[in-house]
């Protein structure tokens, strides 16, 4: 146990040294590549204004999202009414989508339990 702790401390020290040598170069390069997204002056007040703009822009997009949602629901209703004309490919895509949703649900449950594989899924 003590040897593993020393190995971990050694690796942490190496990572810290690497970051101290190369971190500022990476930071400057990242800022230079993305300077078109930087607002001037970079102050707390400007960040607050941008946060409010983002919040209210997303709030304003709710009616459009609501309308899109009901269009999708109407499309599903239409397909369900005409399910006799449904192709095998479309049914396969729907089945894969349902399977993917279930898999994400299971993955979320596993993550929620702290990455333990216990319970009724296994």
Summarize the structure.
It is found in: Mitochondrion membrane. The protein is mostly helical and 122 residues long.
State the helicity in percent bands.
over 70%
Largest sheet: none
| Oligomerization category of the chains in this entry | single chain
How much is the average pLDDT?
Answer: 88
Summed up, the helix count is 4
Indicate how many domains the architecture comprises.
2
Keywords: ATP synthesis, CF(0), Hydrogen ion transport, Ion transport, Membrane, Mitochondrion, Transport
Subcellular location: Mitochondrion membrane
Family: Belongs to the ATPase g subunit family.
InterPro entries: ATP_synth_F0_gsu_mt (IPR006808)
Structural description of this entry:
By secondary structure, this protein is an all-alpha fold. It has two domains: 2-85, no CATH class; 87-122. 77% of the residues lie in helices and 0% in strands. It is built from four helices and no strands. It has helices spanning 2-33, 44-60, 62-81, 88-112. The protein is flat and about 65 Å long. The two termini are 32 Å apart.
Looking at this protein, list some descriptive labels.
122 residues; 4 helices; 0% strand; flat
What's the layout of helices and strands?
Blueprint: H1 2-33, H2 44-60, H3 62-81, H4 88-112
């Amino acid at each position: 146990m003590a040897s593993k702790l020393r190995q971990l401390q050694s690796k942490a020290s190496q990572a810290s040294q690497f970051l101290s040598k190369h971190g500022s170069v990476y930071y400057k390069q990242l800022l230079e590549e993305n300077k078109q997204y930087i607002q001037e002056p970079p102050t707390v007040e400007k960040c607050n204004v941008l946060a409010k703009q983002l919040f209210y822009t997303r709030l304003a997009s709710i009616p459009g999202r609501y309308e899109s949602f009901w269009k999708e629901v109407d499309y599903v209703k239409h397909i369900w009414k005409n399910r006799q004309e449904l192709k095998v490919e479309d049914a396969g895509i729907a089945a894969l989508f349902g399977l993917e949703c279930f898999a994400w649900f299971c993955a979320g449950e596993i993550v929620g339990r702290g990455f333990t594989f216990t319970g009724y899924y296994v």
